Amino acid sequence: MIAYIVRRILYTIPILFGVNFLVFVLFLHVNKPDDMARMQLGNKRVTLEAIANWKKTNGYDKPYYYNNQASGLGVLTDTLFYDKSVKLFVFDFGRSDNGRNIGRDIRERMWPSLAITIPTFFISLFITVMFAMLIAFFRATYIDWWGVFLCVILMSISGMFYIIGGQYLVGKVLHLVPISGYDKGLLAVKFVVLPIIVGVVGGIGSSTRLYRAIFLEELSKDYVRTARAKGLSETTVLFKHVLKNAMIPILTGVVVVLPLLFIGSLITESFFGIPGLGSYTIDAIQQQDFAIVRSMVFLGAVLYIIGLLLTDISYTLVDPRIRMS
After folding, report:
1. For the chain, what is the mean pLDDT?
2. I want to staple 70 with a disulfide (CB 3.0 to 4.6 A). Which of 78, 94, 258, 285 is the partner?
3. Overall pTM surpassing 0.85 (yes/no)
4. Which of 123, 101, 112 is nearest to 264 (CA)?
């Protein structure tokens, strides 16, 4: 197990380097430092001297990949790629193009994101698994048919409709919670209730259909027929045997998502005015702030790889037959 984990961690180094390099190439070759300077200075008629000063202040005056004017390792380290991308491997996020400390912003903004994503994730998981088990238990009945029909309807509705409809119904008509905004401490509860409800409702359809298919596949296997032949009740078979064996494919999707909860929801946070990492990333893209974008992409890649590793480890906990050398 330890050797497997070490190998997987070593595999992540070239993957993260490739992600960093790809983001660097796509962003800086499409959006030149001169264009970034004009964007940040906020004036279309800025002088060449002002552009040069901004580039020097923010570290964009260096060569991209290779500095032939430097000596020794400086030919590689005294470059824009090393300063802006390679330092991410030690989680040195540096400063944004407008001078803000990115690491501090991430530490501050992750809590509003987690306040939405964590409750949404666990509530959605519980509801969808229970709902899927219910319609699988009553398979080939009206409950099964209407359950699938409801899931298809929920899947067919755009997520934007849930957001706008929820804001209008809950905020405007019923006046139960604020439409947008955020506050610190327990005062933030009234601001995150609506985004959580919208997130849960929006994900019921697709997840329930997936879990229903998994449960139905397990119900058709020989060990289920054996359990029934021994006289076990249908609920015992479903909860004690089917659910346990169905957890492996369910964990494949669930555990991978767990680290990504840290990143937040791009659309939800923007529409509800939540100052989380999702809205932070959207604002950086709109402002063409390369420093924030590459930091968030790198962080997302690291968390996704951690999720894949946790998925493999969780398999051995659910099914002891699975062992990794």
Report:
1. 82
2. 78
3. no
4. 112
